[in-house]
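User: Hi! I'm working on a homework problem where we have to compare a predicted structure to a textbook description. Could you give me the structure for the chain below?
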Amino acid sequence: MAQEHSACTLDLKHIQQLVLSSQEAKKAAYCPYSRFPVGAALLTRSGKIFSGCNVENACYPLGICAERTAIQKAVSEGEKDFRAIAIASDVQDDFISPCGACRQVMREFGTNWAVYMTKPDGTYVVRTVQELLPASFGPKDLQKIQ
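Assistant: Happy to help. Predicted structure tokens:
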């Protein structure tokens, strides 16, 4: 079922580990308002996995998505080079897709890494960040005005 891309291809073992880690992270979600738990697991080039879950807040805009939680954890520990991220939710009929804000945060760290969008049964589709956010704005664009 997976669509692979040569620049960010993972072996089956890494994919399964990432998907399972995202499902496990989902269990920690704090989502009393939406009741929509999401988990994410981020694989760095160095082989480390950082997990994250969504954390909501009574002041709705202050909540954070699982993907951004995982990315911020990795960056806070010195990791900025990513191979892939897997995202998990309880949605049965569709693959969970990252929101626009998460896509932009992913893009900050490159466009050619994999995003595994899963279902609870472990099936997934994979796209690159570039495919999820084409014609994107990134760090190099800020240098164009100088």
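For your comparison, note the following. The chain is about 25% helix and 20% strand. The radius of gyration is 15 Å. Good luck with the assignment!
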